[in-house]
Amino acid sequence: MLKNFWYALEFADKVGREPRRATCLGQEFVLYRTEAGTPICLSDLCVHRGGSLSMGTLNGDCIACPYHGWQYDSDGACVKIPANASERKIPRKARVDAYPAVERHGMVWAFLGDLPEDERPPIPDIPQWGDPAFRAVQTEMVIDANYERTFENVVDASHTPFVHGTAFGNPAKPEIPDFRIRSDDWSAEADIQLSPPPPKGLWGWLSRNKPRPEYVTVTNGWYLPNVVKLHVRLPIGDLILYDFNIPLSQDRTLVKILGFRNFFTGAWADRDARKRIEKILLQDRPVVEAQRPELLPFDLSDELHVRSDGLQVAYRRRRAQLIKDGWWVGGDDVVTGGAPQRSATIIASPARRDNPELASAWVHKARNPGDPR
Amino acid sequence: MLKNFWYALEFADKVGREPRRATCLGQEFVLYRTEAGTPICLSDLCVHRGGSLSMGTLNGDCIACPYHGWQYDSDGACVKIPANASERKIPRKARVDAYPAVERHGMVWAFLGDLPEDERPPIPDIPQWGDPAFRAVQTEMVIDANYERTFENVVDASHTPFVHGTAFGNPAKPEIPDFRIRSDDWSAEADIQLSPPPPKGLWGWLSRNKPRPEYVTVTNGWYLPNVVKLHVRLPIGDLILYDFNIPLSQDRTLVKILGFRNFFTGAWADRDARKRIEKILLQDRPVVEAQRPELLPFDLSDELHVRSDGLQVAYRRRRAQLIKDGWWVGGDDVVTGGAPQRSATIIASPARRDNPELASAWVHKARNPGDPR
Amino acid sequence: MLKNFWYALEFADKVGREPRRATCLGQEFVLYRTEAGTPICLSDLCVHRGGSLSMGTLNGDCIACPYHGWQYDSDGACVKIPANASERKIPRKARVDAYPAVERHGMVWAFLGDLPEDERPPIPDIPQWGDPAFRAVQTEMVIDANYERTFENVVDASHTPFVHGTAFGNPAKPEIPDFRIRSDDWSAEADIQLSPPPPKGLWGWLSRNKPRPEYVTVTNGWYLPNVVKLHVRLPIGDLILYDFNIPLSQDRTLVKILGFRNFFTGAWADRDARKRIEKILLQDRPVVEAQRPELLPFDLSDELHVRSDGLQVAYRRRRAQLIKDGWWVGGDDVVTGGAPQRSATIIASPARRDNPELASAWVHKARNPGDPR
């Protein structure tokens, strides 16, 4: 799992004035909005007795721990310890890590890492968000598989005819013509020719008089750390999925999807659009959950790659560099899941690096740059 | 988890002439009474094939393993191997560890360790037991949390207004005035001023004409290894809880409670008293189960303490000494829970130390003084 | 768990033209038959993306992965990669391990190891199979216990009076007269005198006029790696059970049983015969699942043995030799169960040894000869 990235943790309309827990990279966070509507992301772990802040309540822009009522402001500094006499000073160490958070493209994103602002990788663009030509639906599903397995699965065009033969792949024409990859440090994309099956159901009926092309171009792309774009050009219009693969733990993934279409853009067609997306997820799920080893190998030679795996190989190569750079978190130092822990480590937030006078003010130790093996 | 203590393993009236399994410190024991009524506590693990004695049957004062019928007397010595010809001698190694057991204050206690009798820490006093002014109820609940977390939770007065605001805390007045701790090697106690909410339900109705004080004194105390006393002075009388936090495994606790009251001492009020105690447990449970890290840290600096945490800090300091003395059991060498084991280790009973001629007579190895890290 | 043996993985009539998953030694296999009816056993793990072949489909004698449709022939060589242009060559590394498989005695057996044909231990004989004097029933059950625990349990005559006192043991006469063991490198057998209880139910009623002997001879035998024969001589005829203890993981066993009888050989009595066998299994299950430690110890001195345990002690001695020879697989290097893995290791098949030019052609590493500790 990679730190130092912006992670889309929740649909923006799900984050409000009720604290909401988000789990990512094997750590828990609390999300909420200030009275002015700004999204906030704090470590969910009270430094006093490890209470879960997301089970607490908001008091103005502060959040109060459910256990002893300690209140933290939106920068993570504790501003009230109710059991103390009011004249007693709040200890400097009474603070939790606060992670930069923004709302963009219909999602709340948090920067999980300690890089200074100008060194942070970008948030991927989602130009369809807010474009009146497009209509969006949301859907989500928990998959009992590693997030890099579910991520690579969506990047992968060549499984379509076999796993989605009844939905949008064509088992009679599984060959993938060679494609060219456009990539930069944070993403890779390709236009891939797929043979489409005849559309079915509502969409099929409504497009029954349109000619069906021999090939359609599907644009497949990944955006680090965990976003996949899938752009399918149907006879009746464009279907563009943004797929967020959120690592709950090493082997559990929360997949959130924003699905855009520029046809049947009325609310009446939302249910059908959502059902189609969920059908695809349900076809992938048993196959991906059965993959072994459970975790995406580190060595390229641990699996066998062919030409059509180019986007995944590009991901594994880029990942290997980032692991060398110390961006990997994982192995034993996870807070949630697995064996019970005796001490809590967390992902360092920017304040740890930016604010030297706080150097000794942190109760929870930062997770080590992971030795991934 | 600490060895060398008396552990209250079961309510006395639950231990009789049917073998009963008790789990504690990650090890299993069988409890039963002799024909004369004396409580017996043996390691539950037959040395022949690891059968669970508590699934067996009593024969006089002996217990027979359910698997091959080996019979052990109340000192743990095997006295019969049914498959053997009757003239064949019982091997010296055919013995399980027997732990000193007594009935006191309505509980069956077993000494889980090998200290000689005069070096054993005391069983805490429960003066309300047998006092005709008091009426007792029993209750119990399994909590998916570490026993030191549930133990500290009951010791802790300052969570009351937040977690029990609807039961007996007062969220409007959460401040805890400084208190003085009375302690010795095995216990610590303090009188703490809490602001009470108005009592509700049956007790509220029956005390509706009594004046309500601004503060009530709650006496909170811990008794090693795992007992907490909570003495609440209500307008209508005294409610005194003894709370036994039995470690089933590292992260599972069986909480047993003896609850005494000196008001409404008729059986008719038992159900209401039990329900009130269970309500408190059910309020604590989700908060304690969500605490992270799951296990109580060893280093004081892994959490942040304030004045009102004095009793818990005293516990952690005393625990640190006992760990240095080698009283800790834990880590990998647990018999129950977690990964399947290839060999069984058990907590040494006094006979191993008292009886040098038995030195080579033990099949199961004693668990090492735990390196707790 | 021991490699280099023939394992009975499935009842022969359950293996056909639908791929079927079998789990053994903590690894997954796919079983199917060629069009000519020959049973095939391949590693279930596609080398491309770790897809589970047993979720795929047959195409002639080949099996296609459900994920990307790669087709493997019955020797494990990949013969088709659908995403590739048809003129592109199949890489040499596109192959999975194929394990020798045969149908014999009503079971499909696979050789899980890499020994050359002439060094392989034999498949045990089951002379009742195909003998018209005998009628067979099948039954199976999953037991949450280590396979060596369930295996030794069936070898063990002395538990019969205690665990099966209501079925075929006699609790009033539990003594086991000394017996002589006949053994070779791969098996051990003994004729053991047991006192029988009066038969009940249908069999009892039908034999109500036959005299009841004081002792009956039970022939108990084990055949490496995991087969137990239990031959019970009832007043009305012979009941002969072959019991296959298949290790799904370290602590989960699939017990398959072939049960032969030479009385009431009509189909009408099958249901009763199957019920009697299942009753025995259900009596054993709670006792065996409660055994501690969960895994059969490596050191003889970790449990206490008596004369009647001779067959089990012979097994443990023979096992110790095979562990020294490097036939043990286990410990951390299991593919299924337990913690999620980052790389897949598998049991080497004979081709790895027989075919030096394939030395560099294997994607999955072979599991190490286990250091069992």
Describe this structure in words.
- 3 copies of one chain form a homotrimer.
- Helices cover 16% and strands 30% of the residues of chain A.
- With 373 residues, chain A is of the alpha+beta class.
- The radius of gyration of chain A is 22 Å and the shape is globular.
- Chains B and C meet through loops of B and α2 of C.
What key phrases describe this protein's structure?
homotrimer, 373 residues, alpha+beta, Rieske Iron-sulfur Protein, Naphthalene 1,2-dioxygenase Alpha Subunit, Chain A, domain 1, 7-stranded antiparallel sheet, 4-stranded antiparallel sheet, 20 strands, 16% helix
The oligomerization state is homotrimer
Which CATH class of the largest domain in chain A applies here? Answer: Alpha Beta
User: Widest sheet of chain A: strand order?
Assistant: 12-18-17-16-15-14-13
Which chains share the greatest interface?
Answer: A-B, 34 and 37 residues
The percentage of residues in β strands of chain A lies in 25-35%
- Strand-pairing-aware structural class of chain A: alpha+beta
Q: In angstroms, what separates the terminal alpha carbons of chain A?
A: 12 Å
Helix content of chain A: 10-25%
In the predicted model, the low-confidence regions of chain A spanning at least 5 consecutive residues are 332-336
The number of distinct helices of chain A, counting runs of at least 4 residues, comes to 6
CATH architecture name of the largest domain in chain A: Alpha-Beta Complex
Largest sheet of chain A: 7 strands, antiparallel
N to C succession of SSEs of chain A? EEEEEEEEEEEEHHEEHEEEEHHEHE
Q: What is the number of beta strands of chain A?
A: 20
Average pLDDT taken over every residue of chain A = 92
Overall shape of chain A = globular
